[in-house]
Specification:
Chain lengths: ~270, ~400
């Protein structure tokens, strides 16, 4: 059983939904990230989504763009990100870590080399925002070889036949993008989220996470109603940005915020 | 991704891209899932209308009566004589409505947008030519138009910014990243992903996810088709060489594409060497970059060892882009087109030469093609002829040129 499977099984047994906070690795400093990951776990994070900074984050709103700019300002590379996961794993062998980023850093590193290094570092899954399944065959082969879960996004615009194709390729969990837009936007339509999740469940038994636009206990509860996990990104990064000159305060501010979300994810159904 | 062993190509039957938009290993569709359905919808619409005689008729009528095509092929006799080599012909895309080749594509995409029932146009722009060409067609069709432009480029191209506003477009300054064309493209993509239902994204060059590289090429190929006919009238044969500047590469693809099967016609794509290729401050991914994935396609990029896109430099805003159309990447690897680079100073010299010797003020982008064309013409004999794509006029650049020369206007 992989770490992701074990975590979702455990959550299901206790009637809870997964809380998946997102932070950009290296934001605001490289040294902040590993302590922040531990602090998030202590505050209730079930899975950690760790952003690999990229110079041209086309799918991200201003909040996560700025996080990437801060991380790149002192040169956080994909190698640094893997080193952070390796360091995190020295103390935490159970919390799944899923990387989220864009294809080019992986492309330049080389698919085989990246997959091997990520698996060795203790990464469990990878979301490659700009890699649809049609272009993913070569990378998926390497992921399969190294037991890395390719986590695919499904969008409000995705028609049923594509949902089926994507679900057939996905491992770990499926990530439903709650709205048309970039990360950090608002206006969740819970009815349409529920409808789409039902469609997804017709094609897969994998857990379904919902992300984009979840920023407080109400939106988390609304999104969690039909899902197995909620991803909270920009709202976490906001706490990092607000305290970017003081690492200790970042840890407490993010932890406090995550604790406020926990009730939204207990016994929702 | 560039393979060392590329099989010989059958250029007479060149048929690229494949159904999913691949030119060899390049191209494709590398976008977030939200954009996949709209791209498939666009691909289907384009495939339908490109073979629809009514659509083609309407397009031809607009190109003739609105754009002013065919654009002349002009023999630059005085400049050719002074250079002392081949006869140089200039394809006068600068004489199109709005002053550049960009409008060939925006007219086509706007007709498509209308057929698809979209009510809102968005575009990215570097030098502002594509923004102006998009605002122009939007005004004519009564569509809302939003143009994303790097804050840095807005400073360099105030005249075009004002033109767009006069035409009723909203120009949104982009302050992220390097504040130039690549960041404008990111921002336009973010707009599109948010407003996919009613919005048509008019990409201005032969880059981006499929079908854009093929579609923009097809709309621009009118340039090369006209040149084939026009040069036969002058020379009773095809030219020895074609020369065009390459930023994203749409004017070059438009000129080259109808000649790909004619292997006796040599082709030169001219990138911006900025302060020189050795300086690292340039915009020449084909000459000095590596393959990677950006803005929806796999192509040559200016990137660092960690896959981050690096800042480019060129005196010409329209060439200041770290990527290039994927078909150019393939034409480079196969050797069908030669890619070369011209630095800022050489381009400026060509700008002045053409202005003083032929009475034509060229765009700084096109001046890169002119500078290389002049070098090439000197190496060739008086019995040979070349065609340089004069892709745009230089009125928009006079402030840049004056400032470089310490003149305040």
């Amino acid at each position: 059983m992989t770490r992701l499977e074990a975590r979702f099984a455990q959550l299901r047994a206790s009637g809870r939904k997964a809380l998946i906070p997102y932070v950009t690795a290296g934001d605001p400093q490289k040294e902040t990230t590993v302590p922040l990951m531990h602090a998030m776990v202590a505050a209730g994070a079930d899975i950690i989504e760790l952003g690999v900074p990229f110079s041209d984050p086309m799918a991200d709103g201003p909040m996560i763009q700025r996080a990437a700019e801060r991380a790149l300002a002192h040169g956080t590379s994909i190698h640094d990100v893997l080193a952070m996961v390796r360091e995190f794993r020295q103390q935490d062998g159970v919390t799944p870590v899923v990387l989220m980023g864009y294809l080019n850093p992986i492309e330049v590193m080389g698919y085989e080399r990246f997959a091997r290094a990520a698996a060795q570092a203790g990464v469990d899954g990878v979301i490659t925002v700009d890699l649809p399944p049609e272009e993913a065959a070569d990378l998926l082969r390497e992921f399969a070889h190294h037991q890395l879960a390719p986590v695919f996004l499904i969008a409000p615009t995705t028609p049923p036949d594509r949902v089926q194709t994507i679900c057939a390729q996905a491992r770990g969990f499926v990530y439903y993008v709650s709205m048309k837009g970039v990360t950090g936007a608002s206006h969740l339509d819970y009815a349409s989220i529920a409808e789409k999740i039902q469609l997804i469940r017709r094609y897969t038994d994998l857990p379904v996470g919902v992300g984009f636009g979840i920023k407080d206990v109400q939106t988390a509860a609304g999104a969690a109603a039909n899902a197995d996990a909620v991803v909270v990104g920009s709202a976490v990064v906001q706490r990092v940005e607000d305290n970017k000159d003081d690492s200790a305060r970042i840890l407490t501010a993010v932890a406090e915020f995550l604790r406020t979300l926990a009730p939204a994810l207990k016994n929702v159904n | 991704m560039a393979s060392d062993r590329i099989p010989d190509q059958d250029w007479q039957h060149y048929q690229q891209p494949d159904a999913r938009g691949h030119f060899g290993p390049y191209g494709g569709r590398f976008v977030g899932e939200t954009l996949m359905a709209p791209l498939l919808e666009l691909t289907a619409a384009y495939e339908r209308y490109r073979n629809d005689p009514q659509f083609q008729q309407e397009l031809d009528r607009d190109l003739a009566h609105y754009v002013g095509r065919p654009s002349p092929l002009y023999c630059a006799e005085r400049w050719s004589r002074i250079l002392g080599g081949a006869r140089i012909y200039l394809k006068r895309e600068d004489l199109n409505h709005t002053g550049a080749h960009k409008v060939n594509n925006t007219v086509g995409q706007a007709l498509l947008a209308k057929r698809m029932g979209k009510t809102r146009i968005i575009a990215e722009t570097g030098a502002g030519q594509h923004g102006v060409a998009s605002a122009t067609v939007a005004a004519r069709l009564g569509l809302e138009c939003v143009v994303y432009m790097g804050a840095e480029d807005i400073q360099r191209q105030m005249i075009n910014v004002y033109r767009m506003r006069l035409l009723g477009a909203t120009v949104v300054p982009v302050t992220s990243g390097s504040r130039t064309l690549k960041d404008a493209l990111n921002e336009a993509m973010r707009d599109w992903v948010t407003n996919v239902d009613d919005t048509f994204y008019i990409i201005g060059t032969v880059a981006g996810p499929h079908p854009y590289p093929a579609m923009v090429r097809d709309f621009q190929a009118v340039i090369g088709r006209e040149v084939r006919t026009q040069i036969m009238a002058f020379e009773q044969r095809l030219p020895d060489a074609l020369v065009a500047c390459v930023g994203g590469g749409s004017n070059a693809m438009g000129l080259f594409y109808p000649f790909i099967g004619d292997t006796e016609v040599k082709m030169y794509g001219v990138e911006a060497a900025g302060h020189g290729l050795a300086s690292g401050q340039h915009a020449a991914p084909l000459c000095a970059g590596k393959p990677g994935v950006l803005h929806g396609n796999r192509t040559y990029l200016m990137e660092d060892d960690n896959g981050q896109i690096i800042e480019t430099h060129s005196v010409s805003a329209g060439l200041d882009y770290p990527g290039v159309g994927p078909e150019h990447a393939w034409l480079k690897d196969t050797g069908r087109v030669n890619y070369v680079a011209i630095n800022d100073d050489e381009a400026l010299q060509a700008f002045h030469d053409l202005t003083r010797l032929e009475g034509i003020i060229p765009a700084l982008e096109s001046s890169h093609a002119l500078a290389y064309g002049a070098k090439l013409a000197r190496q060739l004999g008086a019995d040979q002829c070349i065609v340089i794509n004069l892709s745009g006029r230089g009125d928009k650049d006079i402030h840049t040129v004056a400032a470089r020369e310490g003149i305040k206007i």
